[in-house]
Write a structure and sequence with these properties.
Number of domains: 1
Mean pLDDT: 86
Strand content: under 5%
Number of strands: 2
Shape: globular
Radius of gyration: 20 Å
Distance between the termini: 27 Å
Helix content: over 70%
Largest sheet: 2 strands, antiparallel
Length: 265
């Protein structure tokens, strides 16, 4: 059974190479977006050593780090679920002996592996050409906790994507919703700046949402800027969100299937 899921991940690679132009444009857009953000913060930092409580190396590391792990966390194919519901292609999966969500989770993993492979090359060239002031975390414990936080963030993003896609049971087109969702993720996940530079009341509100645990929280752990209490609370909140998202996903799935009419089939 597990073999078919790994084949699904492999198929994602094959599909990417079929649409090479689309993928190339996506990678170029990602690099340009990173360079704009990098040079903007470099200009803000100037000759200063600290900004918003971060050293220059920490801030540059945060900006480059969130961009890099974003290739792992934010890349996704599960957004296609909405299109399959609208076209009726979902029926092809309902008659097969497999878990639909597990199938798409492995599809996501294939997409993430593809994006990370190219991101490694891109960031290698950036480091060679720009020689940014990058902070290397010497404490292996923080590195391990950083990896665990990444695994949690991947899971959170997957179920958030699925939830948006499942709205296709009730609306004819989910693309506008996905676009708005992506904009929200870009801001609230902390991809543009560390969220703790916001006013404290606003930051505390954001901290209760699942979005900061996608990029901001893992990078704070990597930088060693989060105390142990903050790390434990962050893990607790993110795990609670995973539990709630799974429950709500299953709830919408069951209701949606009762409404599903396989239009287009």
């Amino acid at each position: 059974m597990i073999k078919q899921y790994f084949l699904a991940a492999k198929n994602t690679w094959d599909e990417t190479f079929v649409y090479r132009l689309n993928f190339s444009i996506w990678r170029i857009r990602t690099v340009i977006s990173l360079l704009i953000t990098y040079f903007l913060w470099l200009a803000l930092l100037g000759n200063g050593s600290f900004i918003f409580g971060y050293t220059k190396a920490q801030m540059i590391t945060y900006i480059l780090g969130t961009a890099f792990i974003g290739n792992l966390v934010l890349s996704s194919r599960s957004a296609t679920i909405g299109d399959e519901i609208n076209t009726g292609d979902l029926s092809n999966y309902l008659i097969k002996p497999m878990n639909y969500f597990t199938y798409w989770f492995f599809r996501d993993l294939g997409d993430k592996a593809m994006n990370m492979s190219f991101a490694l090359i891109e960031f290698f060239l950036i480091f060679i050409l720009l020689k940014p002031d990058f902070y290397l975390q010497p404490n292996i414990i923080y590195v391990v906790l950083f990896v665990i936080a990444l695994l949690i963030s991947i899971t959170i993003l997957f179920f958030l994507n699925v939830l948006v896609s499942l709205l296709a049971f009730w609306v004819d087109e989910v693309w506008p919703l996905r676009f708005i969702f992506f904009i929200i993720i870009q801001f609230f996940a902390g991809s543009l700046f560390p969220l703790d530079i916001l006013p404290k009341p606003l930051f505390l509100i954001f901290s209760s949402l699942p979005f900061p645990y996608l990029l901001y929280f893992p990078m704070k752990i990597y930088l060693g800027n989060e105390n142990w209490q903050g790390i434990l609370v962050g893990f607790l909140i993110s795990v609670i969100w995973i539990f709630l998202l799974i429950k709500f996903t299953n709830f919408l799935w069951e209701i949606g299937l009762r409404k599903y009419s396989a239009q287009g089939r």
